[in-house]
């Protein structure tokens, strides 16, 4: 038996390796897979078919990527600044907070950025020792801008036309409005004004906050930089007219600032000693200023056009004036102090405890008015004072820009937040 079993084992064919089958359907129905599902290499068909190249990953568009295009050119004949009302070319900074990065983006504008502005004329052409430091090219730009503005404005508006445009821009008729806040007239706001002028002949501008201390400068800069004409002013509300011959298709090219440039470093506003006083007298004046009766309290984002005449009248009887600015941002009441220093004029004593304390100085003369107040380039016609809007607002003559300064301070609604951030006016 054992011998028979051994012979049977030898006669049995070798066992094939077992193949694991998941299903018998393939053998029963004779399914043949298509050629597309059969794995094969490129070498099987001689490399005739090549794989399709992969698509590059999606890259979102960027405003900084010029795509090889040349830098844009703008023919506007003035220096590009972030704010035209809150930055004065006469104030010389002592340094910059960051390198001279152009806020227009790298390679987007053919004008270089100096850290303060993008000048229309190369600054290397200036001669500091000449009688007139402005080169002839700048004078030619000013003259060309004046002639172009006169051409676009055309003939003066009649009283009926003026009254119609003013009534059309009232709050009861339209909600379209441009808000001029604490940063003043910014460069990008010029583009917003021209966008409004595409469909409307006039646009309403509401001014609140720090720039309203000097409304004359706001009106002058609006007319000078936009080329329009202010046909109505009631408090901080202005109606800006585009002109009879304005063509939206031929509007000037205004490159937009992509970010807000850093504010330069200016000299200290509050010095250790006031000029003409000793250290002890300066300390005593600062302590005394905190106990002086408050002249007025400033509302946040209010209307401050009557602040300068109020301070001038107060200096007729008192040598120190205190203005309560609690609740205002630090940069706001510092800017207001600088405007009072230049417009009244006066000497800034302290900003302690959110109070603006100013001193009239030893040689103060109440009859001397500030020389910086000049008549605006374009004045409203006197006949416009009789035109009335539908909601009863009387038009005012533009020849008297300062007539608004005697109105009371307004603690009106707060200004909507501007899309640009608040900048520090001065550094301690």
Automatic annotation (TrEMBL):
What biological process terms from GO does the record include? Group II intron splicing; mRNA processing
All copies of domain CRM, residue ranges: 155-253, 275-371
Protein origin, superkingdom: Eukaryota
Q: Sorted alphabetically, which InterPro entries does this protein's record hold?
A: CAF1P_plant, RNA-binding_CRM, YhbY-like_sf
One GO MF term attached to the UniProt entry? RNA binding
**Biased composition, Acidic residues: where in the chain?**
380-393
Q: Which SUPFAM superfamilies match?
A: YhbY-like
Q: Which segments carry the region annotation Disordered?
A: 33-100, 129-152, 378-428
Q: Single GO cellular component annotation?
A: ribonucleoprotein complex
Which ranges are annotated Polar residues under compositional bias?
394-413
Q: Indicate whether Nucleotide-binding appears among the record's keywords.
A: no
User: What keywords does the record list, in alphabetical order?
Assistant: mRNA processing, mRNA splicing, Repeat, Ribonucleoprotein, RNA-binding, Transit peptide
Q: Which positions, given as ranges, span the membrane?
A: none
The answer, when asked if RNA-binding is one of the entry's keywords, is yes
**Protein name according to UniProt:** CRM domain-containing protein
- What is the organism of origin for this protein? Oryza nivara (Indian wild rice)
